[in-house]
Design goal:
It is a single chain. This protein has one domain: Rossmann fold. The chain has helices at residues 13-21, 60-68, 83-95, 108-116, 141-146, 177-184, 190-199, 235-244, 258-261, 263-274; strands spanning 45-49, 73-76, 101-106, 124-130, 157-163, 169-175, 203-204, 222-227, 248-252. Helix 2 crosses helix 10. It is an alpha/beta fold and 278 residues long. It starts with 12 loop residues before the first helix and ends with a helix. It comes from Streptomyces narbonensis.
C-alpha cells in the first residue's frame, strides 16, 4: 500500500512575494526608527534685497557664486518707497517661496529685511546685512547715518520733484553721476561704476526719514559685513548697529558697493549663514 503525504497548504501570496524578491528583514525601516540613508543638507533660498542708488544687478557677482554653490537665489526688486511699503512687497516675495529662506540686505535693504522678516521666524532662518542698516523700531536711515561722523552722501545727492496724476507729490533723491564713483563705488573699475551711476535707482527722500516699526534681528540670527571704506554709512554706525544686534560680524576694507567690488567676500558671509539652516 502506498502512503501519500498530506498536501501542504499554499504559502500566502505576500510571503511568496517577499521570497521572490529576496527581501531581508534588516532592509526594512520601521516607523519611528532612524533612516540609515544620510540626509542631504538643507538648501535655503537666498533672497537678496538691494538698497538705494542701486538695482538688482548689483548682486550679479554674488548670485553667480551662490548658484555655483548650489543655492537657489532670488534678487528681488526694491521699490524704494519707504520701509513699510518696501517690506510689505518683500514679504510677499518671501511668502511665495517654498522652504526656508535667508534674507540678505544691502544698505537701505537692511532696513527692509529687518521689517519684512518679523513674524516669519519659522521661514526666514537668517538675516545677512551687507554694509547695511540694522535699525531698531523708531529709528530711520537718515538718523542712524547722522548719529556718527563720516558720511559724505548729503554733499553729492540731488532731488527730483514729482507730481503724480492723482495729485500726490514728493521728491526722489539720487547721487550725482559725476560723484557716484568716488562716493558709492570707489573700489569698482571706472567703467563699471559709470554704468552703475547711469542705472541707479533713486529712493524717495521720505523713505530715509520713515521710522522702522519692527526689528527682526531681535529674534532671527544675524550676520553683518562692515565696510571700513564706506562713504555712505559711517563705519562707526555699522559697528554700532552690528554689535547691538549681536550679529556675527566681519569687517572688510571696501567701499559701499562691496557686493560689486568683492562678491567673493559677500558670498562667503551669505554661505556661512545658509549653512546654519537645518
Amino acid at each position: 500500500m502506498r502512503i501519500t503525504r498530506p498536501t501542504r497548504p499554499a504559502r500566502p501570496v505576500a510571503l511568496l512575494g517577499v521570497a521572490a524578491v529576496g527581501l531581508s528583514v534588516t532592509a526594512v525601516t520601521l516607523p519611528g526608527t532612524a533612516d540609515a540613508t544620510p540626509r542631504q543638507p538643507v538648501r535655503p533660498t537666498i533672497v537678496l534685497e538691494h538698497g538705494a542708488f542701486a538695482d538688482a544687478s548689483s548682486w550679479d557677482g554674488v548670485v553667480e557664486r551662490l548658484q555655483r554653490a548650489g543655492y537657489p537665489v532670488v534678487a528681488a526688486a526694491n521699490p524704494l518707497r519707504g520701509p513699510a511699503t518696501d517690506a510689505a512687497y518683500l514679504r510677499s516675495v518671501v511668502e511665495h517661496i517654498d522652504g526656508p529662506v535667508v534674507l540678505v540686505g544691502h544698505s537701505y535693504g537692511g532696513t527692509v529685511i529687518s521689517q519684512a522678516a518679523t513674524g516669519l521666524e519659522g521661514k526666514v532662518k537668517a538675516l545677512v546685512y551687507i554694509a547695511a542698516f540694522l535699525p531698531d523700531a523708531g529709528e530711520n536711515s537718515l538718523g542712524l547715518t547722522n548719529k556718527f561722523p563720516g558720511s559724505t552722501l548729503g554733499q553729492v545727492i540731488a532731488p527730483v520733484n514729482y507730481t503724480l496724476p492723482d495729485g500726490a507729490s514728493g521728491a526722489d533723491v539720487f547721487i550725482k553721476p559725476d560723484k557716484f564713483h568716488q562716493q558709492f563705488a570707489a573700489d569698482v573699475p571706472a567703467d563699471r561704476a559709470r554704468l552703475m551711476a547711469t542705472g541707479q535707482r533713486p529712493i524717495a527722500a521720505a523713505a530715509l526719514e520713515e521710522n522702522s516699526t519692527r526689528a527682526a534681528w531681535k529674534t532671527i540670527p544675524s550676520w553683518s559685513l562692515v565696510t571700513t571704506e564706506d562713504r555712505n554709512i559711517p563705519v562707526a554706525a555699522q559697528r554700532f548697529m552690528s554689535a547691538r544686534a549681536h550679529a556675527r560680524t566681519t569687517e572688510i576694507d571696501a567701499s559701499h558697493a562691496v557686493s560689486v567690488s568683492r562678491p567673493d567676500a559677500v558670498a562667503r558671509i551669505v554661505e556661512k549663514a545658509a549653512r546654519t539652516v537645518r
